[in-house]
Amino acid sequence: MTWAGGRFGERAQCVLAPNANIMTLDGTNTWVLREPGAHRSVVVDPGPEAVEHLDAVAAAAGEVGVVLLTHGHADHSEAARSFAQRMRCGVRALDPQHRLGSEGLGDGDVVEVDGLEVRVVATPGHTFDSLSFVLPAERAVLTGDTVLGRGTTVVAHPDGRLGAYLDSLQRLHALAEAQEVEVVWPGHGPAIADALAVLDRYLAHRAERLDQVREALRDLDPQREDLARAVVEKVYVDVDPVLWGAAELSVRAQIAYLLG
């Protein structure tokens, strides 16, 4: 499946950053949000310091009211400060180190720019500072790295916390079940037309992996230094070994969750 961004609904345009790799899939999705007929936009996750990409974002956005960050990983946040300075606006994020200006961002906040309404939902787990953004007018949710357009998310110990991540998936699932969100606009990979189906799949996948890790731990010495790697070699045989390093970080989070 090829993915190059594009326009979605009446209020969103995805500008794909040129930073594709095995972890970022096709690259980082920078989302430009604007109410029809409005002058100012909201830019979500400007992405890396890549001049051509930021020029394209600026061209799509026009005047920018605010930059929002789903979380602080560099592939989403690296260019946030410089881009905001260029556009003469602030950066709002949960983590103070990524902000530009005095305004933070947290669960329950509502960001309004020229009639556009963005509701903030705390979805920690992938990182401690992960946020998702709901656009009620589109019944869409921007999930950053909490839900991806293809594959599954790495919950990397110690910043990543599996218990928090499962709670976040349940929170998003409840929004989808209530039909408050119907589509997912992720931080990487293609847009997803059925939010409820992908969240069902994510929850089922996590439950299955936890069962596999639990079973693997029964046969391994919990004191061994390479415990996480040994679990990876048992459980992630269906995954390209190139990804085993990332899988090991997820397994550390799973072990911490299971063993407390």
Give a written overview of the molecule:
The chain has 260 residues and is of the alpha/beta class. It has a single domain, classed as 4-Layer Sandwich (Metallo-beta-lactamase, Chain A). It has 7 helices and 11 strands. It has a 6-stranded mixed beta sheet with strand order 1-2-3-4-5-6, covered by helices on one side. Helix 4 runs antiparallel to helix 5, helix 5 crosses helix 6 and helix 6 crosses helix 7. The protein is elongated, with a radius of gyration of 19 Å. The N and C termini lie far apart (39 Å). The mean pLDDT is 96.
* Distinct helical segment count: 7
- Beta strands, count: 11
The general outline is elongated
Taken together, the total number of domains comes to: 1
Going by helix content, strand content and strand pairing, the class is alpha/beta
| Share of β-strand residues | 15-25%
Give a quick set of tags describing it:
260 residues; alpha/beta; Metallo-beta-lactamase, Chain A; six-stranded mixed beta sheet; five-stranded mixed beta sheet; 7 helices; 11 strands; elongated
Secondary structure elements and their pairing?
Elements: E1 6-8, E2 12-16, E3 29-33, E4 40-44, H1 51-61, E5 63-68, H2 74-77, H3 80-87, E6 90-92, E7 110-113, E8 116-122, E9 131-135, E10 140-144, H4 162-177, E11 183-186, H5 195-218, H6 227-235, H7 244-259
Parallel strand pairs: 4-5, 5-6, 10-11
Antiparallel strand pairs: 1-2, 2-3, 3-4, 7-8, 8-9, 9-10
Helix pairs in contact: 4-5, 5-6, 6-7
